[in-house]
From TrEMBL:
Residue ranges, annotated region (Disordered): 364-417
PANTHER family found in the cross-reference section: CHITIN DEACETYLASE 1-RELATED (PTHR10587:SF133), GLYCOSYL TRANSFERASE-RELATED (PTHR10587)
Protein name (Swiss-Prot/TrEMBL): Chitooligosaccharide deacetylase
Keywords: Hydrolase, Metal-binding, Signal
Pfam family, one: Polysacc_deac_1
GO cellular-component term (any): membrane
Segment forming the signal sequence: 1-30
Function: Is involved in generating a small heat-stable compound (Nod), an acylated oligomer of N-acetylglucosamine, that stimulates mitosis in various plant protoplasts.
Example GO biological process: carbohydrate metabolic process
Amino acid sequence: MIGSSVAFRTRSWVVLGLGFLTLGSPAALAADCPGHPDALGTSRTLVVDPHEHPRIGTMQYRETLPLKDHEVVLTFDDGPLPKYSNQVLQILADECVKATFFIIGGQAKANPEGVRKLVTAGHTVGTHSMTHPLTFDRMPIEKANAEINGGIEWTSAAMTDPSALAPFFRIPGLMRAEGVENLLISRGIQVWSADFPADDWRHVSPDRVYQLAIQRLEAKGKGILLLHDIQARTVAALPKIIRDLKARGYRIVHVVPATADRPATPTAPVEWLLHPPSETTPIARWPAVPNFVYTQTQTLPAPDLADLNAQPAHQPLLPRRTMAQANVAAILPAPGRDLFAIPEGSLEVLLSTTLSRRAATRLAMAAETTRAPKGKAAKPQARHTSHATPATPKHVAQPNSATPRPTRPSKRYPTAA
Ligand SMILES: [Zn+2]
C-alpha cells in the first residue's frame, strides 16, 4: 500500500527534482561548503514553535515536521560521547549538514566540552533525560520531572550560552506517556518522536544501518531519521547514508526553535501531516495514529496540571540551578554501562515495521495485564542500583579508555525480557 505511493513519489521526484532544487533559499548548499564542493549541504532552516505543534514524529504521533517531499531531518541521541560524537561531528562538518542532537544529562555532565562543540558547529541541541531510564511510560510524574530537569540542567550548564538549548525533548526509548507529554507541553517543550529509526543501537552491521535508513526513508519519502552518535556502527554508516541521500536527491533540513527574534516558518496545519491529502493521495492513506500508544497510558493516568501545581504560563523552560536541582546528580545515578542498549523486542524496535507494530501492541497489552492490575501507577522499580553485573552484556559503545565517562545501570526494560 505504501509501496505504490512511494513509487509514484519517486517518479515524480525524478521529473520534478531539478525544479525543486532551485526552490527556497538554500542555507548551505554544496557551493557554500568550503573545501567540499560535492557536499550534501543543508538546504533550508525550518523554525518551529513548540506551542503550535507539541508532538511530532509519525512513529507515534499524528503530526510530524512540515517537510516537503525528499526532505530529511537528521537526529542523534544519547551523546555526547567523545570517541564517536566527535567523528559524527566531523562527518557532518565535511558535508555541511546541520542536525539535531538529544543530549543525556549524565553525558553532558561527564563531557561538557562535547555539548559546546555541538553548539559551536551550529547544530540544534535538545535533551533526552538525565539517566535515560526506559520507564518513562510508567514512572511517577515527579520522577519524570526530575529526569527532564536533570537533562536540561546539565546540558544547559555545559553551554557557554544556555539560551542555545532548544526546547526539544525526546523520551528515552520513545516510552511515551500522556502525563509526561502534558508536563513537557505545559512548559513549552516540543516532544520529538521520529518518522523512522535505522536500528543503530542493535547489534547489526553498519551496512544494515545504512540499508534500513535508506529503505525506511524511501518508504515515507521524507521525515525525521533517528540515529545515535554513540555507536561505532553509526559512525561507519553515516558517510554512506549521506552520500546516498545526495545521490537520491534528498535534502537536509535544519530545525531550530522559534524565539522572540526568530518567528516560526509559516506553515499550514495540513503540512504537519506526513502525507497531506491531495488529488493523488486518497483520504484512506492518511497516517493512522497507532492504537498501541494509548495502551501504555492506563497505568499512568494523565494528571490534571492543577494537581501538579504546574504553572505553565510562568514556569521557566530552563530553570536556574537550585540547591534541589544541584542534588539531582546525587539522587539520580550517573548513566551506567548498558544505558544505551535498547533491548530487542522493546517498543522502539518493534515499531520499525508494520508486522512488528502488531507485536508491539500485543506486548503492550500483555504488559498491561501483568503490571498494575488495579490500573494504578506501577511502583518504580529499583533499576539504577547496580553497575556492571555478571549478566551485563558487552557494552555496544566502547569509548576511548582515556576518556572519563559515566557508568550505567544494568537493568533492562522488563517487558522486553
Ligand atoms: Zn536514547
